[in-house]
Amino acid sequence: MLMSQQFASTRKDVSEEEVSVNAQLLTKAGYVEKVMAGVYAFLPLGLRVLRNIEEVVREEMDAAGGQELLMPALHPKEYWEATGRWGGLDVLFKVPSQHGGREYALGPSHEEIVVPLAQKFIHSYRDLPQYVYQIQSKFRDEPRAKSGILRGREFMMKDLYSFHVDEDDMHAYYDVMKIAYSNVFTRCGLNAIETEASGGTFSEFSHEYQVVTESGEDIIFTCECGYAVNREIAKVQSGDECPLCKKGVINEHKAIEVGNIFSLHRKYSDPFKLRYTDESGVQQPVYMGCYGIGISRLMGAVVEVHHDDKGIVWPEGLAPYQVHVVQLGDDEDVVKSTQTLIKKLDKVGVSYMYDDRKLSAGAMFADADLIGAPHRVVVSDRSLKNGGVEHTVRSSGDSKVIDIAQLVKEL
Amino acid sequence: MLMSQQFASTRKDVSEEEVSVNAQLLTKAGYVEKVMAGVYAFLPLGLRVLRNIEEVVREEMDAAGGQELLMPALHPKEYWEATGRWGGLDVLFKVPSQHGGREYALGPSHEEIVVPLAQKFIHSYRDLPQYVYQIQSKFRDEPRAKSGILRGREFMMKDLYSFHVDEDDMHAYYDVMKIAYSNVFTRCGLNAIETEASGGTFSEFSHEYQVVTESGEDIIFTCECGYAVNREIAKVQSGDECPLCKKGVINEHKAIEVGNIFSLHRKYSDPFKLRYTDESGVQQPVYMGCYGIGISRLMGAVVEVHHDDKGIVWPEGLAPYQVHVVQLGDDEDVVKSTQTLIKKLDKVGVSYMYDDRKLSAGAMFADADLIGAPHRVVVSDRSLKNGGVEHTVRSSGDSKVIDIAQLVKEL
User: Fold this and answer.
1) What domains are defined for chain A?
2) Which chain A residue lies closest to B90 (C-alpha atoms)?
3) What pTM does this model have?
4) Cβ-Cβ contacts under 8 Å, B47 against chain A
5) 8 Å CB contact of B117 and A41
6) Which residues of chain B does A39 touch, with a Cβ-Cβ cutoff of 8 Å?
């Protein structure tokens, strides 16, 4: 991509309203643009990052046996009434139709859709277990939405639902998902702490994945021994805000929840009478689990963790492109060497942005740092005199002049 | 994928309500499942087809200079008021918030979002032209929705918006899009007729892409000379329902609109005052075009056109997988040859479904025909005795016994 032709450029005039670091940086760098509070457009660069995160999640869900499908956002009211959540969930958007007085729910979650769907296909023990997931936009009527893409009224989620013959199988898959989740967050450059959390009345088993950062809206306690717990349930368990672990020194942190896993037991299968016939011909209830990852929130969390005073520092796997090529000046040698470089990058399939805007070196370097691709490569008279191009690693700041062929080999 | 482990199977008990051929076949074959009228879930097979169509569209839009982004479904009311469409569009879903009396629109189209967005980035003639598109769910409060995935209350769309310095540039890009659209539909196995259509008051230039089929809701007239026109405007132009072309024999057809292209002129840029500074420093209005393809509707149209009495007959590029492998019986040779076949398919990267369900040959063949992959390959005692596996082409019915290595080479 030529930077001069990009639809969205870096911006200096970002609204003061954007108080969160993720929204400030992502807006300035041209990744997202606020449409209204809690609702963002993902610009071409932002969509590339979102797709990279989706791909990491998709690979790990597929590896755990997940089958991807796509459920709608518009839900029948009667399914939400069946589970008691039509009146019971204050963040549920209710959409009236102008025809015939109908009302729909706008899905903040898909238990109410996936269970009736599973009912069409799950009849016998032979049809179990099943694991289905989707990556899709969710909606929540949030009273406040001031954390950029960390808490949206519309946001991208991966939600996986599992169906089991019994509790044991449900618990076994819960452990499979723990590993998958750990893989996802590690690949996204996040240290997400598996934290005990409230599972509601139905569940002794619920964990959140929490990323420690100052902008977090949750409070978690971690113990030296490895145990971590959300303050919400530490309160419930101990009667005050002191956590329960006695095995080591307790620390308190602000954190962002980037994922959660629940054993649903029969909470949603019972209202819809989702049952199967076992080996001896007897009807049995289906046990379920659900497992969420906030894809767009994860993008925001990565920015909260991976930035410095100059801009974003993307982990390699998530960056919109790997190399930011800056051409300084118009000298024949510079132009020729830049063309050689990008042809070689094309050939080996390394993605790049090519800054052809002919601005001052300072302005182009500032944009490269702000946007945060892992590698900056500057082609200039000086670099060519010194034997090649100047390669700077965004995360460490390490810089060296290197021959083009050698650089492409290293990338 | 092992067919025995699929979440969704073929179904015989499809509701009589599903009157359309596309919904009947796609539901029976396990591609989609109706959640309510006009709202469908895309099952794993269906999502694969949807993704294949998306990829064709994405490639052609990228080739025409399009930059992909992702806008939200939830829109601020004030933008729709600015264009006069808040009160003027009867299919607009209006979503009340439970907090603070706010109301949102649920996007049936994105002019109201893309123009304020473009305003952040388009300032000078140097910033033009721009072409941005998205592939995203749209919502329409349809009074009736009885055509399966041809007319949905929630549906997948590609919408591209172009921004130009003047009318000439707008018209020139209109012709670029005509070629891109022709490529898309040809690659999807559709003969889509470029049909003159109503562009509303603002536009002499509007075309629909119409696929002739009995289930179409539109009526078009085509002339031998190549001219085609929607009945709606033939009426307006001629005062009755006779079309205007005098160059040849006129035919009347039912047809499905799978895409449309509009010259928007200043219809949406004016209300938002989207302007740019020209070379001489003067403020000028931006001209726009918009170009839609109904991704999920296109999938339905392909089924309406490409099926026979046994099921769907997918064009190669859209099929959820290329080969449907049927293993007949459990003899050691059959098992071994099937394993050899699927390993070879894996190696060359040809996608396949493996029917390992051990049902009767008739039941498995019926499902293969219903699902409609381009190639069926049967491994049986008999085929092995005859020198290989039995390869049947779904579209022609041509069948032959062929050596496995040779078959894989041909695929």
Assistant:
1) 3-308 (3.30.930.10), 323-410 (3.40.50.800)
2) A98
3) 0.96
4) 68-70
5) yes
6) 72, 74, 76
* Cβ neighbours of B132 in A, within 8 Å: 7, 44
**Nearest-by-Cβ selection for A72 from B41, B69, B96:** B41
Q: Kindly report the backbone phi and psi dihedral angles of residue B189, in degrees, each rounded to the nearest multiple of 5, phi listed first.
A: 75, 20
A170: tokens are 């449900």
User: Cα-atom radius of gyration of chain A, to the nearest Å?
Assistant: 25
Q: Which of A42, A130, A137 sits opposite B73 (nearest CB)?
A: A137
Q: Do A35 and B69 touch (CB under 8 A)?
A: no
Spatial distance between the Cα atoms of B64 and B181, rounded to a whole number of angstroms: 10
Q: What is the pLDDT along chain B (411 residues), one digit of tens a residue?
A: 899 999 999 998 787 777 899 999 999 999 999 999 999 999 999 999 999 999 999 999 999 999 999 999 999 999 999 999 999 898 999 999 998 889 999 999 999 999 999 999 999 999 999 999 999 999 999 998 888 999 999 999 999 999 999 999 999 999 999 999 999 999 999 999 999 987 654 556 689 999 999 989 899 999 988 889 998 887 666 655 566 677 778 899 999 999 999 999 999 999 999 999 999 999 999 999 999 999 999 999 999 999 999 999 999 999 999 999 999 999 999 999 999 999 999 999 999 999 999 999 999 999 999 999 999 999 999 999 999 999 999 999 999 999 999 999 998
What is the distance between the alpha carbons of residues A231 and A234, in angstroms, rounded to a whole number? 5
Residue B22 phi, psi (nearest 5): -60, -45
For residue B97, the one-letter residue type is S
Q: Which residue has the tokens 């083009």?
A: A404
**Which two structure tokens, joined as six digits, stand for A141?**
């009527």
Report the distance separating Cα B96 and Cα B94, nearest Å: 7
Using a CB-CB distance cutoff of 8 angstroms, which residues of chain B are in contact with residue A42?
Answer: 69-71
Measure CB to CB from residue A132 to each of B7, B121, B143 and give the nearest one.
B7
What six digits make up the tokens of A212? 């420690």
CA neighbor of B319 nearest in space, from B306, B304, B328, B338: B306
* ipTM score: 0.96
